[in-house]
Amino acid sequence: MRHRLHHKTLNRTSEHRKALLRNMAQSMVEHGKVQTTLPKAKTLKPYIEKLVTLAVRARRRAADGDDAGSLRARRRIHRMLGDRSLIPKEHQSTYEQMSDAARAKTLRMASGRRHRTGEPKGRLVFTGESVIHRLIESVAAQYEDRPGGYTRLIRLGKRRIGDHSPLAILQFVGDEEVPTSLTKPAKSARQRRADARYALAVKLAKQRPGKKEADRLAEEEEASAEEDHPEASGAADPEVSQGGEEQQDTDASSEGEGDEDKAGS
Predict the structure, then answer these.
(1) Residue 262 domain-assigned (yes or no)
(2) What is the pLDDT of residue 180?
(3) Which of 73, 138, 181, 256 is at 20 to 30 A from 195, Cα to Cα?
(4) Quick one: CA dihedral 251, 256, 259, 264, positive or negative?
(5) How high is the mean pLDDT in each 10-residue block of the chain (265 residues)?
(6) What is the pLDDT of residue 88?
(7) Domain holding 134: CATH number?
(8) By C-alpha distance, which of 155, 153, 150, 122 is closest to 48?
(9) Angle value at C-alpha 50, between 46 and 51, nearest 5 degrees
(10) Distance between CA atoms of 69 and 75, rounded to whole angstroms?
(11) How far is the CA of 15 from the CAs of 18, 21, 48, 96, 233, in angstroms?
(12) Does residue 204 form part of some domain?
């Protein structure tokens, strides 16, 4: 029974679990964030926040002149986090192309002690930086006035291929990208086709005249047609009207004679 056990075992032994948390914490200090499964991220969150709290305490003790308290906090960090040399990101490709002897000089001094600050020394363009040094000098320096809550857990919509485990990102607060620097995701083929259809429709709509323009064109066409084929809009031609009246009188007289013939017969 798991009575009074508040931590998750992650289906691992205690030694394996401690090594897992230590390695993920070192990677998070190095890169500022780590992507893993949701249960691991939830387990790592209090672990890394405890380390940041100890690093902040070490800085405060050193600033107050309490060297013993600072050393005690550093020893607790070393016990939980271990120590590892980190290579600066801008020199990572150069370090990978170096020989083993050159790498050893970059990581350790001639006396055998490790380089901890990452600053260039002598003929070395760069040296290794201790993960504890980066945690105290770089990470903890951002949260000296913050009372806890140094990390943010973001659930991802995708799952890991294989066991379909939910994924999440655990990152330090303040290291996220600002909205102006975010890049838009690439458009799918369906979106590109829809945008092309919309652009074509807009182009045709601009070429097609509007209602007022169509009315104006119709009026111009009517005016041009009237100029080409003028028609009598006022009184009729007098000769035509007179001829019409004479025709009407002739018809009336012929009708009267026909009626008289019928009556005499």
Answers:
(1) no
(2) 59
(3) 181
(4) negative
(5) 83 94 95 94 96 95 94 95 89 91 90 85 88 93 92 93 93 73 78 92 80 75 74 49 54 55 50
(6) 85
(7) 3.90.1030.10
(8) 150
(9) 120
(10) 10
(11) 5, 10, 18, 31, 109
(12) no
Query: How many angstroms separate the CA atoms of 112 and 61, rounded?
Result: 29
Cα radius of gyration (the chain) = 46
Q: For residue 198, what pLDDT is reported?
A: 93
3-class DSSP string for the chain: CCCCCCCCCCCCCHHHHHHHHHHHHHHHHHHCEEEEEHHHHHHHHHHHHHHHHHHHHHHHHHHCCCHHHHHHHHHHHHHHHCCCEECCHHHHHHHHCCCHHHHHHHHECCCCCECCECCCCCCCCCCCEEHHHHHHHHHHHHHCCCCCCCEEEEEEEEECCCCCCEEEEEEECCCCCCHHHCCCCCCCHHHHHHHHHHHHHHHHHHHCCCHHHHHHHHHHHHHHHHHHCCCCCCCCCHHHHHHHHHHHHHHHHHHHHHHHHHHHC
Q: For position 245, what pLDDT does the model report?
A: 53
Residue 30: both structure tokens together: 């190095």
| Domain span holding position 154 | 14-87+128-175
23-40 as b/e: b if 16+ CB within 10 A: ebbbbbbbeeebebbbeb
What is the domain count for the chain? 1
> Rounded to whole angstroms, how far apart are CA atoms 28 and 172?
8
In a domain, 194, yes or no: no
Yes or no: say if 41 and 169 are a contact pair by the CB < 8 Å rule: yes
- The dihedral over CA atoms of 87, 172, 144, 140, expressed in degrees to the nearest 10, equals -20
